[in-house]
Amino acid sequence: MEKITLSITGMSCNHCVNKVENALNEQDGVEKVKVNLKKGTAVVKFDESKQTLDQLTAAVSEVGYEAIPEN
Ligand SMILES: [Cu+2]
């Protein structure tokens, strides 16, 4: 299991948080997602044999936000 933090640009309210959370939760192998609106981050726990960092950032940009890995 891998745990990463994404810096998310463009979130302004809880609606944005839900969109990002849902987009990440829908991805294969994603176990847990925690989005923090104030910090502008998403912490994602996922199975690295089923999911990639590139695919996760792509899923976020598909719903209209920019995701950059912090670690
Ligand atoms: Cu919003």
From TrEMBL:
Superkingdom, taxonomy of origin: Bacteria
Record-annotated HMA domain positions: 2-68
Record bears the keyword Metal-binding: yes
One GO term (biological process): copper ion transport
Coiled-coil ranges (or none): none
Keyword Metal-binding: yes
Name of protein: Copper chaperone CopZ
Organism the protein comes from: Aquibacillus salsiterrae
Classification lineage: Bacteria, Bacillati, Bacillota, Bacilli, Bacillales
